[in-house]
Amino acid sequence: MRAPSPTPLLEARAITVRFGGLEAVGGLDMAIGRNAIHGLIGPNGAGKTTVLNVLTGFIRPSEGELVFDGEAIGGLGVNRFARRGLARTFQNIRLFGAMTVLESVLVGAHQRFSANALSLVFGRRAAREAERAMIVRAYELLDFVGLGAEVADRVATTLSYGHQRRVEIARALISAPKLLLLDEPLAGMNAVEKSEIADLVRQVRAQGIAVLLIEHDMQIVRRLCDHLTVLDYGRRLADGPPDEVLADPAVQAAYLGRAR
Amino acid sequence: MDYFGQLLANGLVLGAIYALTAVAFTLVYGVVRLVNFAFGELFMLGAFLTASLMLPEVRLIGVAVPMPGFSLPVAAAGAIALTALLGVLVDRIAYRPLRNAPRLAPLITSIAVSVVLQSLAQTIWGAEELRFPEFHLATLPPVVLFDSIYLSVMDLVVMATALAAMLGLSAFIARSSLGRAMRASAEDQMAATLVGIPVNRVVAAAFAIGSGFAALAGLLYAQTYGFAHSGMGFLPGLKALTAAVLGGIGSIPGAALGGLILGLVEALGAGYLPNGTAWKDAISFVLLVGLLYLRPQGLLGKPELNSAGRGSLLGGASDFGAVWLRAAFATFDGWLARAAAGGPRAALALLAFALLLGALVPSDYWLRILTMVVVYGMLASGLNVIVGFAGLLDLGFVAFWAVGSYLTSILFVLLLKDQFGVAPADIWWLLYLNLPLAGLVAAGFAVILGTPTLRLRGDYLAIMTLGFGEIVRVVAINWMDLTNGPMGIRGIPAPNLFGIALGSPRAQFFFALALAVLVVFAIARLVRSYVGRAWVAIREDEEAAEAMGVPTARYKLYAYAASGFVGGFVGVFYAHSQQYISPLNFSLFENILLLMLVVLGGLGTFVGPFVGALIWIVFLQLALDLPFVQAYPETRFALLGVVLVVLMVFRPQGLAASARVALTMSGARSKEAA
C-alpha cells in the first residue's frame, strides 16, 4: 500500500451541513491523498452521499472549508467544481435520457471544447478537429470501461444497469479529472461485475486519478481502498488504513449495532 | 378622496372577479399540477349561458331559439351547473388520459381546449357582443358611502357573492370528506391512491368546482360591464392566472389575495398613472414578472412547486390507441428514422423538393401559402431551440419576432422615409443589413428577458415568459411615437436585390426558402456540437449537466439568444413580405400557435417545425372547402384544437419525433465508428 502523500489533493476542514434543524454532517475533517483510493463508508443514513454532494459543490456546507489542489473551492458553482477536476457519478444513475452513449459521454467533455458559435456555424477546421479528437477519446474510454464500440449509438438509458454505470464512469473520466467520486458504483451488481469494476477503479488510479468511493461491501473495500473514512450520524468515527479502521471496535459497533 | 374612493370600489369589484377565477386555476393546479388555460373560456361560457337563460329568445347558430327568461339568480345557478358539468367533461376527455404524461402535454391540451371552446362559442352565439340583460337590482339607486363613493347595488352583490363563495369553499375544503380527499391528493397523488382515495373523482370534483367558480366570475363580469363576447374570457383568464401565481398557486387564500391585489393595482394604476387606462394591462404583468423574479413561489405558495421536470417536455409514445394505429406509427417512425439517418442527403432531397414546388406551383395564391409555411416553419424552428432542445417552455418568443419586424419597419418607414425622405428603393441593401442586425438586437433582448427567468422552471417559467410577451405587446400598442400604436406601420417595401424587385409571390417564396436554409443550417450546426449537447443535457437533467461542467445558466441564455436571433432575423423578412405590421401580428395566440406547430411536428427535431407549419397552414386552407367551415370560418380553429387534443392523447411526441437529431458533428466520426 502506498503511503498518502504529504499534501492532500482534497481537504475538507470542519464541514458541517445542517438541513433546517437537522445536522446531517458535523465538523467533518477529511483529506483525500493524491493518487489514493479513498473509501467513505458508514451505515445507511450516515451522511455519505451528503458528504459527496458537499465535495462536488451540490450542497453548500453551513460551515467549514474545502481546499482542492491547494486552492479554496468552497462557494463555487457546481460546474466550477467539475472544471477544477472533480468528476462524479450518481447513486441513482443519472444518464441523459434520449441521448446515445457516445453523446452522453461527450457531455462530460464539455469543458474541453472552446469553439465559439461562429466557428461552429461555419464549421471551422479547429472546431471539427476538437470534435473529432473528443470522439476518439470517447471511444477509447468506452473501451477502457469495458464497453464495446457497438454500444456507442444506442440510447444510453436502454442499456443494462451495469453498462449504464460504466457509461457514467466514462462520462466522468472524459473530463480528465484529478479526482473521481463514485457513489456506490457496485450497488446491485453480481460478484463478477463487482470485481470487474474494482479492477477498473485500480486502472483509473494507475492513470494518476485519485478516487473517492462510497461502498457497502466490506470485502471489496478492504481489498480496494488504501484509506478509509467512516461516518456515523454525520460524524467521523474513524479514519486511517482499512485494516486498522475495520478492526476498530467502535466501527464494528456502528455496523453491527452493538451497544456502545 | 372621492376619486380615490371610486377607484377603490372599482378595484374591489374587479378584484373579486379575478379572485374567483384565480380560485379555479389554483384549485385545479393544486390537485393535478395543471395550468388549465381553458378556465378563461369557461368564464366566458358562464356569461353566455347566464345571459341566454335570462332572455326570452336567443339566436344560436343563426336560429332563433326560445329561452325560459329566468331571473338572474336562477339563470346563474343553471349556468354554473352547466359549466361545471362541461368542466368535468373536458377533464374526462382531454386531461385524464394525460395524467401521467410530462407537463407540456396537458398544458398544450388545455390551450387547445380553450381554442375549441372559444371558436365553438363564436359559432354558436356569433362574433358580436351579446347584451347582458338587466337585472332589477341594477335599477336601484346606488349606495353612497362617506358622501362621495358611489357603489351600485350590483357592485355590492358582486363583492358579497365572491366573499360568500370563497368562504363556502374554504369551509368545504376544511370540513368535508371530499375536501379532505382533495387536500390529500394535492399533497401526494400516489399516496392518496394507495390509501383508497378515488383520485379521479377528486380531480373531477376540483374541475367541477373550479369551472363553477370561473362561470360565476364570468357572469358577474358580464353583468358588471353589460355584455358577453366570445373573446371576453381571454384577458381576464390571464389576469386570474397572474393573480393565482401572485398569491402562490395552489393556495386558495393566496388566490383571493392575488385577485384583490391585482384588481386594486389595476384600478388605481389606471386612475393615477399618466395614460393609465392604456397601460393597465402591462401593470399586472410587470407586477407578475417582478414578483416571480423576487419570490417565485408567490406570496403564500410553497417553493417546491417550482421544481424541475426532467426529460423531454412531451415524453415518448402513448399507451393509447388501437393496435393498427400504433403499428402504422411504428412503420412511419422506422421510415422517418432511416431518412433522418441519411442526414445531409435527406436534407438536400427535401430542399430539392421545395425548390421544385416553388418552380412548378402555378397559382400565386398557393405560393403565398407556401411562403407562410416556410416563415412559420422558421419561426417555429427558432422557438424549437429553446423549447425543444433546451427544454425551457417559452411563451414570450413572439416578442423577438416583433423586435425584428418593428426594427426594420421603423428604420425603413418611420425614420428614413418619413423623417428624412429617403425612398425605400434607394436603400434596398438595408434589408440585408437588418437581417443580422435585428437578429443580434433580438438576441440581446432575449438575454435580458432570459436572465430573470433562470431560477424558474416548468409552469412558472412559462407564465413568466408569457408575462414578458404580453408586456412587449402592450408596449407596441401604446408607445405611439415609436411603433405607430394599434394603427401599425404601412408601406414597408417588398424585398429588393440590386434594384430587382422580389415582390412577386414566387420570388418571395424562394427568398424565404433561402433564409430557411440559412436558419436550419445554423441551428443544425449549433445543435450538432457541444453546445447542442449541453442544451439537451440541461433538458434531460439539469443537475447532472452542471456536474459534468456545463454552466447551465449560461447555456440557457445561449439558447434564449439563439432563439431570439432567429425570431429577429425572420421578423425582418416577415415585415417586408407582409408590407404591413401591427401589434395584432404578435399576440399571445401567435406564440401559442408556434408552440403548437413545434409540438405537432415534433419537439427537438429539425423537420418538426416545418412539418407542423405545413400541416397547419394547408389544413387551414383545405378546411375552407368544407361547407360547414365556409359558413362558420371560426370552426377551423375548433377543428385544429380537436386535432391537437387527439394528437396529445395518441401521439404526444409529435408526428416527426423519430427524425432524431444526432448531437455530434456530421463527418467528425467517419473513421472512428469502425
UniProtKB/TrEMBL annotation, chain A:
GO molecular function: ATP binding; ATP hydrolysis activity; L-isoleucine transmembrane transporter activity; L-phenylalanine transmembrane transporter activity; L-valine transmembrane transporter activity
InterPro entries the record matches: AAA+_ATPase, ABC_AA/LPS_Transport, ABC_transporter-like_ATP-bd, BCA_ABC_TP_C, P-loop_NTPase
Coiled-coil region list: none
Presence of the UniProt keyword Lipid metabolism in the record: no
Gene3D superfamilies, alphabetized: P-loop containing nucleotide triphosphate hydrolases (3.40.50.300)
Keywords: ATP-binding, Nucleotide-binding, Transport
Family matches, as CDD domains: ABC_Mj1267_LivG_branched
Record bears the keyword Transport: yes
GO cellular component: plasma membrane
Any one biological process term the GO annotation gives: L-valine import across plasma membrane
Domain ABC transporter: 10-258
Protein name stated in the entry: ABC transporter ATP-binding protein
Biological source species: Ancylobacter dichloromethanicus
TrEMBL record, chain B:
Membrane topology: Multi-pass membrane protein
MF (Gene Ontology): branched-chain amino acid transmembrane transporter activity
Main location: membrane
CDD domains: TM_PBP1_LivH_like, TM_PBP1_LivM_like
Localization: Cell membrane
Pfam families found in the cross-reference section: BPD_transp_2
Protein name according to UniProt: ABC transporter permease
GO CC term (a single one): plasma membrane
Transmembrane regions listed in the UniProt entry: 12-35, 42-64, 70-92, 104-125, 149-174, 202-221, 241-265, 277-294, 342-361, 373-392, 398-416, 428-448, 460-480, 509-527, 557-576, 588-619, 631-650
Keywords: Cell membrane, Membrane, Transmembrane, Transmembrane helix
InterPro entries linked to this entry: ABC_transp_permease, LivM-like
